Amino acid sequence: MAYSKAAHSSIIVRSYLNILFFLEKFIGPLLFLFIRIWMGQIFWYSGLSKIQTWDTTLLLFQNEYKVPFLPSEFAAYLTTGTELTCPVLLLIGLASRLAVIPMLIMTAVIQSTYQCSNEHLYWAMLLGLILCYGPGKLSIDFLFRRRRERKSF
Description:
Layout: H1 2-52, H2 54-63, H3 72-92, H4 96-114, H5 118-133, H6 140-152
Helix pairs in contact: 1-3, 1-5, 2-3, 3-4, 4-5
């Protein structure tokens, strides 16, 4: 009887480990790709809307979007440039962790100065995942890292 309990326990442990392996190998990379696409899309569309109506964007930065410590026109250029550059890097997974930093800063500024919303906290958590764990296996960063590891051996 003790043997069957041990065998049963071993089957459960093996099954659990197989599920974890599957999640890490196949679902995890897709999840990180989904997060990168989602976050990149939010910032990309915001940048596109700014360049489509640049005069309105400048007015909004002068009157509505009060970015601390920066002149409004400079803040408009900096924000728009960030929103059009970082999502592309994030999407392809190139310098992803560096691209996430200005996006996190922008999220914090939006949350603290313009529009307090729980949605920004979700953005910060998802961007924080990429900052801490990287963009995942479906990225150029991962290919570079893998290539560097092969050269060191």
